[in-house]
Amino acid sequence: MAVRLISTLALVLLPALAAATGTTQQGSLVDHWVGPVALLIFIIAYGLVMAEEFTHLRKSKPVILAAGLIWVLVAWTIRGMEGYAANAAEQAVRHNLLEYAELMLFLLVAMTYINAMGERLVFEKLRSRLVQKGYGFRRLFWITGLLAFFISPIADNLTTALLMCAVVLAVGAGNSRFVLLACINIVVAANAGGAFSPFGDITTLMVWQKNIQTAQGAMNFWAFFTLFVPSLVNWLVPAAIMVLAVPNDRPSTSADKVVMKRGARRIIALFLLTIVTAVSFHNFVHLPPVIGMLTGLAYLQFFGYFLKKTVHRDHAMTRKQFARETANNEHLGSLPVFDVFNKIARAEWDTLLFFYGVVLCVGGLGFIGYLALASEVMYVNWGATPANITVGGLSAIVDNIPVMFAVLTMMPDMSMGQWLLVTLTAGVGGSMLSIGSAAGVALMGQARGQYTFFGHLKWTPVIALGYAASIATHMWINSHLF
């Protein structure tokens, strides 16, 4: 019984894409001393991750250390042990690294494009236009929520939430009630919008890249769009209730006009072309989506080269005039120009390295045998539907990325409807608490003192109602997939 409880705890805290669950064929180390020690190392490391807001210790540091400690313990323990090949640990680690490389490079390209659009003032332009419209609080509540829902499938829920929160803070200064409700609405909408698109949330991306085959067909790019209506319900139900508490006033706020930098619209077009390339590579020639994304990065690199060579156009000069003015004006020559590698450098490296740590950590725990036990408890003893609904609840406490990594590592035998269900619950379950998603955590920092954990918690029952309604909607309209 104790072992089963430990395995369930492992599922609650596990974040990884491990891939080395082959221990079910070659033996288990769960009953060996290395099993509890490795699990304890990971629990301590992830506890530090969850306390990042208070300790200010970047989340990548403890999990990277834990990954190294867990694997060195595993490798040392199985040396010469019967039932394990001499290079079993090495092969498992290499497989984990391959899984991580695909995810990391995919996200790196997406982050680079988002940073490039930010540098070209694309998001500032959108914020400025919304502020200048002079809408009332209730209308802004719906507009920011609607934009969050439809932008997050293309960008990502974190970037979308930060953008919409900037709008809310600009127009709602001095009205803390509106800021709180609007921020909750944005978090719910951004997470819901990200759940039905492989590009909207990391959990959905992971499921898509896994290329899961079910009795109803493959989990291809278009399969996820069957979650559109359930995701919309997940946002609309709590939004329709919360809007009644939004002040029915009109803010008196103005904003300076923002002009996007040269090339902004073309970078947006190149990002959309990159998405098409990734989907096409995956669907038509069966290459990993990351190959298409990296090809799309080349589009941005060549366009960045064009922007550098034509920098004189930014100053309404000919090339000769610009060279002459630069020679006479050192300040003009030192002005920054577009550089794609600066955008790569500004990627969320702490997040990317955090993924490395959790992939390798759960790689080790999966190798030991914990995930096989957790899979038996949840997907065999409980059943797929209760297990997948529970996953959403866990993602509100732990964050959806770790939980989905654990599910993909266990790889239970499920129908397409069940895989879509766990994609939905893991994506939107984190909205129930402010700490349950990256969007919520980020907005607590951006709207500090106005959007808080306890302020969000008061509306958790309403958000949970939307969570339940989205599950019921999915099981109703997509019943043929179960």
Characterization of the model:
The structure is a single chain. The chain is mostly helical. It is 70% helix and 1% strand. It has helices at residues 2-13, 23-26, 34-50, 52-55, 60-77, 88-119, 122-132, 137-151, 157-171, 176-195, 202-209, 228-242, 264-284, 289-309, 319-328, 330-334, 340-345, 349-368, 370-382, 384-398, 400-410, 416-428, 438-446, 453-457, 460-477; strands spanning 213-214, 217-218. The chain has a two-stranded antiparallel sheet with strand order 1-2. Helix 8 runs parallel beside helix 10 (176-195). The longest helix has 32 residues, at 88-119. It is globular, with a radius of gyration of 24 Å.
Short key terms for the protein model shown above:
disordered N terminus, 482 residues, 1% strand, 70% helix, globular, mainly alpha, two-stranded antiparallel sheet
List the helices and strands and how they pair.
Elements: H1 2-13, H2 23-26, H3 34-50, H4 52-55, H5 60-77, H6 88-119, H7 122-132, H8 137-151, H9 157-171, H10 176-195, H11 202-209, E1 213-214, E2 217-218, H12 228-242, H13 264-284, H14 289-309, H15 319-328, H16 330-334, H17 340-345, H18 349-368, H19 370-382, H20 384-398, H21 400-410, H22 416-428, H23 438-446, H24 453-457, H25 460-477
Antiparallel strand pairs: 1-2
Helix pairs in contact: 1-19, 3-5, 3-18, 5-18, 6-13, 6-14, 6-18, 7-9, 8-9, 8-10, 9-10, 9-23, 10-12, 10-22, 11-21, 12-25, 13-14, 18-21, 19-20, 19-21, 20-21, 20-22, 21-22, 22-25
